[in-house]
Amino acid sequence: MPKLSISFILSLIAAIIFLQTLYFKFTAHPDSVFIFTQLGMEPYGRIGIGVAELITAVLLIVPLTRPFGAVIGLGVISGALFFHLTKLGINVNDDGGKLFGLALATFVCCLGVVFLERKKLPILNKL
């Protein structure tokens, strides 16, 4: 399978996960409000992260901007992983670690896209 096909699949998975979480953030779903309250970021952090995730998903879907979306996605999802490992825990609100698993999957997908399309990124194009 060509690198661009793998990159497309990875970026699509990451974009779908980012887009799926927007419903919870933008509708102030109780689980999302709970998480951001625990972090001391409710409501502005919830909405701000939602906007960042929406922009990231769009960038991941557009082929020309895919590697840039992946870099931003790594930043956004690294924050989520950090808070899971420091403040929230892996099992949040009795979800059995589902949110943590999705964050990990998103991180791996974005990292894969960055690696596969590194020549399109100005700072990594020599690697």
UniProtKB/TrEMBL annotation:
* InterPro entries registered for this protein in UniProt: DoxX
The record's Gene Ontology cellular component field reads: membrane
| UniProt KW keywords | Membrane, Transmembrane, Transmembrane helix
| Main subcellular localisation | membrane
Transmembrane ranges, per UniProt, are 7-24, 44-61, 68-85, 97-116
Q: Does the keyword Glycoprotein apply?
A: no
Q: Does the keyword Membrane apply?
A: yes
Task: State where the protein is found.
Answer: Membrane
- Coiled coil start-end: none
Membrane disposition: Multi-pass membrane protein
Protein name, UniProt field: DoxX family protein
